[in-house]
């Protein structure tokens, strides 16, 4: 791990960090961010697909299914 001195303050140089939900890396490339977003999308679409599959058995309407989907997107992750 390296650091940089700015105005007599030592600043740690990181390989990658998250800022406003986006992963940034020191090399400026975005593969890890793209991979992270694809995995999130895959999980969300899987949840939505499962919800739609249950729609016929539970007689859920599309609005209710979409509300469930949104709730899963904003639920705190542990």
The helix content, as a percent range, equals: 40-55%
Q: List the uncertain runs.
A: none
Continuous helix count: 2
Mean pLDDT: 76
Distance between the termini: 28 Å
Give a structural overview:
This protein has helices at residues 31-58, 62-74; strands at residues 2-6, 9-13, 16-19, 22-25. The strands form two sheets. A two-stranded antiparallel sheet has the order 1-2. The protein has 78 residues and is α+β, with helices and mostly antiparallel strands. The chain contains two helices and four strands; from the N terminus they run E-E-E-E-H-H. A hairpin with a 2-residue loop joins strand 1 (2-6) and strand 2 (9-13). Helix 1 (31-58) runs antiparallel to helix 2. The chain is elongated and about 65 Å long.
Summarize the structure.
By secondary structure, this protein is α+β, with helices and mostly antiparallel strands. The chain has helices at residues 31-58, 62-74, and strands at 2-6, 9-13, 16-19, 22-25.
What is the element layout, followed by pairings?
Elements lengths: L1 E5 L2 E5 L2 E4 L2 E4 L5 H28 L3 H13 L4
Antiparallel strand pairs: 1-2, 3-4
Helix pairs in contact: 1-2
Pick out its properties.
two-stranded antiparallel sheet, 23% strand, alpha+beta, 78 residues
